[in-house]
Amino acid sequence: MKIKMVHADNFDELFSRVREVDKAQDIDDELIGTSIDFIKVSDSKMIYCEALVYGTGDDDEEL
């Protein structure tokens, strides 16, 4: 299993970066889960984060 973290200043940028990361994964890697979070930096600033969890094809690996 491997986890990739992506962050951006807005949703459009976040989803664009997520697509780039997803395309860059090995062909055997399967996206098995995602999680989106928001971090408030100030009253006018948010950071959008998404964790992408990939199964690497190793069935014997412990989670």
Main attributes?
21% helix; 63 residues; three-stranded antiparallel β-sheet; 3 strands
Describe the structure.
This protein has 63 residues and is α+β, with helices and mostly antiparallel strands. It has one helix and three strands; from the N terminus they run E-H-E-E. The chain is elongated. The mean pLDDT is 87. It comes from Lactiplantibacillus nangangensis. This is Phage protein.
Question: Layout of helices and strands, plus pairs?
Answer:
Layout: E1 2-8, H1 11-23, E2 30-42, E3 45-55
Antiparallel strand pairs: 1-3, 2-3
Protein name: Phage protein
Organism: Lactiplantibacillus nangangensis
Which residue ranges are poorly predicted, with pLDDT under 50 across at least 5 consecutive positions?
Answer: none
Q: What proportion of the residues is helical, as a percent range?
A: 10-25%
In DSSP terms (H or I, runs of 4 or more residues), the helix count works out at 1
The biggest beta sheet is recorded as:
3 strands, antiparallel
Structural class: alpha+beta
Strand content of the residues, in percent?
over 45%
Q: SSE order in H/E notation?
A: EHEE
Number of strands: 3
Overall spatial form = elongated
Whole-number mean pLDDT: 87
Instruction: Walk across the major sheet and give the strand order.
Output: 1-3-2
Instruction: Tell me the radius of gyration.
Output: 14 Å
